Amino acid sequence: MIMERWRATYRLLKYSTFRSFSNYNNSRTFSSERIGSTSCRIQGRSFSSVATTVQRNPLFSSINSDDISYFKDILGDRGVVQDELALVAANTDWMHKYKGSSKLLLQPRSTEEVSQILKYCNSRSLAVVPQGGNTGLVGGSVPVFDEVIINLGSMNKILSFDKVSGILVCEAGCILENLITFLDIQGFIMPLDLGAKGSCQIGGNVSTNAGGLRLLRYGSLHGSVLGLEAVLANGTVLDMLGTLRKDNTGYDLKHLFIGSEGSLGIVTKVSILTPPKLSSVNTAFLACNDYASCQNLLLEAKKKLGEILSAFEFLDSDAMGLVLKHLDGVRNPLPPSVHNFYILIETTGSNESFDRENLEAFLLHSVESGLVTDGVLAQDINQASSFWHIREGLPEALMKAGAVYKYDLSLPLEKMYDLVEEMRAQLDPKAKVVAYGHLGDGNLHLNISAPEYDDKILAKIEPFVYEWTSKNRGSISAEHGLGLMKANKIHYSKSPETVQLMFSIKKLLDPNGILNPYKVLPSTLFS
Amino acid sequence: MIMERWRATYRLLKYSTFRSFSNYNNSRTFSSERIGSTSCRIQGRSFSSVATTVQRNPLFSSINSDDISYFKDILGDRGVVQDELALVAANTDWMHKYKGSSKLLLQPRSTEEVSQILKYCNSRSLAVVPQGGNTGLVGGSVPVFDEVIINLGSMNKILSFDKVSGILVCEAGCILENLITFLDIQGFIMPLDLGAKGSCQIGGNVSTNAGGLRLLRYGSLHGSVLGLEAVLANGTVLDMLGTLRKDNTGYDLKHLFIGSEGSLGIVTKVSILTPPKLSSVNTAFLACNDYASCQNLLLEAKKKLGEILSAFEFLDSDAMGLVLKHLDGVRNPLPPSVHNFYILIETTGSNESFDRENLEAFLLHSVESGLVTDGVLAQDINQASSFWHIREGLPEALMKAGAVYKYDLSLPLEKMYDLVEEMRAQLDPKAKVVAYGHLGDGNLHLNISAPEYDDKILAKIEPFVYEWTSKNRGSISAEHGLGLMKANKIHYSKSPETVQLMFSIKKLLDPNGILNPYKVLPSTLFS
After folding, report:
1. Best interface-test mutation with B: which of A218, A273, A307, A494 has the largest number of B CBs within 10 A?
2. Taking CB atoms and an 8 Å cutoff, what residues of chain B touch A348?
3. pLDDT tens-digit map of B348-382
4. Under 8 Å between Cβ of A345 and A355
5. Cα separation of the two ends of chain A
6. CATH-assigned architecture of domain A158-273
7. Distance from CA of B484 to the nearest CA of A (A)
8. What architecture is the A2-11+278-395 domain classified under in CATH?
9. So what's the pLDDT on residue B83?
10. Where would I find the FAD-binding PCMH-type domain in this sequence (chains A, B) (predicted)?
11. What ipTM does the predicted assembly reach?
């Protein structure tokens, strides 16, 4: 009976944003995960209030005319931007939450130029902010005060691609979508994909250890980045640009630069292992009665779908209710009955008929065993797109519903939903707790939706959420980094000894602290 | 015609060492890769000649009776080993190439004990060697002089396993095979597998970033290790034992301890992501006319077999000739004609019939397109085992053939075989150049087989091989690390700036240099 529904055709849904097939352009686009994870509205911070939480380091110099002349000598007039309008954009993050007051944007075209800039800035104690596509969510890519902005966008060449090994080498300023397009022609894909792909740069992706939509299948950048070139604060160029899958000659230092948000060095080139593009994609939308079933379904999916499983997303009934209420044209693909949890499963493989049969057999088994209470299997791209739209439309629905307090957490799977329930239990019913996320990655997007922002609600959420996450050895920032926003919250996820060693390494690599100051590490360490 | 052969049954071959199905025991077993990569006979070094290349650091203290008393207070009599026979084994590597003269072996049972030991040794300037299963090939796991041996074997508890996420947490002294057995019952596998699994310990695997047989499919430990606990030289315990797939809160310091061969800290606990066990394994043995076809076949295999490809090994005709000549009972599964290259392909997936059809279709296509000139598909475990035996029997055949100069290199795929041909061109024909390896990983095992060791031959090989590897941005140690053997050769694969930064980090984490001295980094840095 259920299996008939798997084969049913759902033509009533009309969205066409299925992420694997949509037409992206080079304008700034942002994924639901990115929008969904910002807490820009939570704390109601204005530009000024953010700035006042941090004091400008008085040891840093200010730009003078000699500096400008020097940079023009190195970069030419074109590489030295003082235009106010351009600076406003570069000083401001895309959420308009953080705003710096830099008077200078530099656009190097080569590693050598980056090296010359940093060597000079270091000698002059001029603080700098490395900037890629400026699509971050934690205030990591814009100045806090008057730091010099070094934008890598002019270093955007693909240097080599080996079709046998799938290894791509490129400059840091390459826009992710351009790399995806290039690889598509070669029959390969990038091991990471983000909604922000039209703007974000690979150097920024690597520097922030971007997670994105393919992590479940292809793992983190610590696994797929094979090599890096990075420039240290004193201008030293570190050539770690290996293109080898195996290399055990000494400490693998590239990992220091993956996820350190530009605070240890500026990534200038990247070597990355790209997987072959596979032709078969299947998508199913399922319902489960309880969270335990969701967990068990994931376990079964990993066993039965194993090598073809590429996404395992979940949302709860409050999340579904919100989407249905606030997003035009969205319908629940399942008959109008109340389910407690919904799961979106995607498989990606090389054989259409095999994969399809495999998924159908898995779904049938899941229904028979009672893990799944209802479900549909997309018959075409439009249907798949409509399923994804429910999941990806959640942040928009939340924004339309009123005020929203947003948290992006990694938690042990078995405890993840306990937090949601505990949160519900201690909040007034007018504050609705809505949960969704990448169950396959252990990544929960916890949202509290309320009619309006209210400090009393916030006081019941924070520090409770951070403390709960810490107690359960979770991460207070699953994929967005710490930046300025969470630099002082690092202790919720990292031990004092570990943070102390991070600081020692920061001091070792950047003794004057010029690289992306005020970010990542707590300000108390520097005082 | 060819396809008929795919289905042919090869019952004439009688080996039963197929690695996925053989019965391992806890005695020391070593893979062909490990044996195949040692150059212990190349340089003809004796124990004494190895030791004389390094001077004992005069700043290190020597053990006295007070030290022994202190350690007995911490560890009890049982944890303090001074027995001569036990010390001989712990002082000697398994190849009997390196031998130290330590008078003391400590066996801590907890992280706290490791911490107390190191804190004390650091304050007393007593050098230490962390030791796991002592299965390394580069002299990294035994003392050079009288360093205190800290063996982790007593810390062998599995701490937790989450069947939904597949995340295993265990102590560093767990023997790899025990973890594999434990996971097998749970329906999971370790993401790494080594011939040395019966002895090697997970802490040692992580500390040496062991590659092994599953790297093509599951990537390196930098991707699959989710967290670590490590003890620094001064006794500080770094709790980085996260169990999360996503955690972007500060610098990911665990990577410093993956592959640094115990020279930055002692790994005491490991958290690792384990893949589900898949039921379907297929193996084919193919012939190609030229190296370009091997490369193209790999490209096609990655595209067509994509998610199920789990091994892609190659050997050249000289390698095949050697195996057939020197190993009893081995036959070429292909008819007796001369092929230039042989390829072993393995797939691992979740659906027997789908995977089989997929592989058969791929093989048919490869034959039709001319990439493959002949081939067989194993019909059962014994046949698969016989194919693997050809590949894995190579080191044994080489040993039987006479003197052998061995190199374990990572090289860009497109250039890998150029080195073999250049090597052949400049050597006298009595020195036979034999090539095989993990083509899918870009890992070449280059062997020069000669009637006897001859300095004239060696002079034509070294430093040529290292220089050629360096010029082509390869690695002089694909998976075995540098240890004592290659510490002074690091510059062939790493830039001076990178090595300098490694040294700075070593000084930062271990200012007295007590952790695994004389290893990994060049002695010139310490003088």
Report:
1. A307
2. 307
3. 998 888 899 889 999 999 999 999 999 999 999 89
4. no
5. 67
6. 2-Layer Sandwich (3.30)
7. 12
8. 2-Layer Sandwich (3.30)
9. 96
10. 98-277
11. 0.87
